[in-house]
Amino acid sequence: MEKIQMVDLKSQYQKIKTEVDAGIQEVIDSTTFIKGGKVVDFQRNLENYLQVKHVIPVGNGTDALQIALMAMGLKPGDEVITPTFTFIATAEVVALLGLTPVVVDVDFDTFNISVDSIRKAITPKTKAIVPVHLFGQNANMEAILEIAKEHKLFVIEDACQSIGSVYTFSDGREFQSGTMGDVGCTSFFPSKNLGCFGDGGALFTNDDELAAKMRAVANHGMQVRYYHDFVGVNSRLDSIQAAVLDVKLRYLDDYCAARKAAADYYNKAFSVSDKLITPEHSPFSSHVYHQYTLKLNGVNRGELIKYLNEKGVPAMIYYPVPLHLQKAYQDPRYKAGDFPVAEKLCDCVMSLPMHTELTEEQLEHITKSVLEFVK
Length: 375
Ligand SMILES: *Cc1c(COP(=O)(O)O)cnc(C)c1O
Description:
This protein is an alpha/beta fold. It has two domains: 9-249, Type I PLP-dependent aspartate aminotransferase-like (Major domain) (Aspartate Aminotransferase, domain 2), CATH 3.40.640.10; 252-374, Aspartate Aminotransferase, domain 1, CATH 3.90.1150. Helix content is 39%, strand content 15%. The protein has twelve helices and 14 strands. It has a seven-stranded mixed β-sheet with strand order 1-9-8-5-4-2-3, sandwiched between helices.
């Protein structure tokens, strides 16, 4: 049996090596490393896949979030609502821009931002909501968009973990993750569901004006060359990364299906134990399983992970500490106990290997090892 890894990028690459290598070689031969034809090709193909008017490729997912906020013209002190159970980047860019992150709790079932908590957190200073589609399924966008409309707030979707996931509104309309709010942000970090061979990211929007603004912000605040209308940043996807992504985009649906199949295997195997709470699948969203995350019920997590590691099974904790308890984000407004769901999740979640190359033999070994420990 191949060594089990949290993410197996090597086996995935082997299957598409010919196409990927040819794409990279093409870029090298052309020597258009920045803003080359490959970036535009990939941008168009992703726009088509997502059915969104504008894709703006940038340097990474964190930059995408920052550029989205910069383009909205928010002022220091403006409040931005984000979940406390997420990867740090979501709140980091808010703080970095001098805006005030207002953290809210999440739902125990789906790990996603709690709609009731958003409602309670709104003040006259609230300007935007940043829902995170955590672990690969969309937050409750219909409710979030309703709240945003009522209070005239921007919605920036953090779709760094959810590309390819589809959201269905109650009237039956379907949207790709990241294309429902004012802006969607994604990351092409190698281990993401659509990952390149380095850093990369993108913004999505259907708003022409916002698209132009974000494109300019990402390019030193410049619309006409060497005329700078506002303070911007330098953030771009390079052509080699675009060449890799353009190949992998063609397989994205297959990759999503492979992840789903692995999750189905896990769910079935773990259904026999009441000590393992398998991930809930919301009725309004498909799930692309960026992570497969169990909630442990009365199991010593540290001991279980140690046992699994001895059996050659890696396991990770995403995430061990909620935002409001991170040292860098200490805030007199928040203390331990304020967001009980997120705090409980941090204590009981455990993520198992999840990628496109898991074999039945590996899945059997992983599930057997977990069940052996919990009995
Ligand atoms: C990965 C990730 C980011 C940041 O993306 P980078 O490309 O690493 O900057 C932001 N938010 C979430 C939820 C992520 O998972």
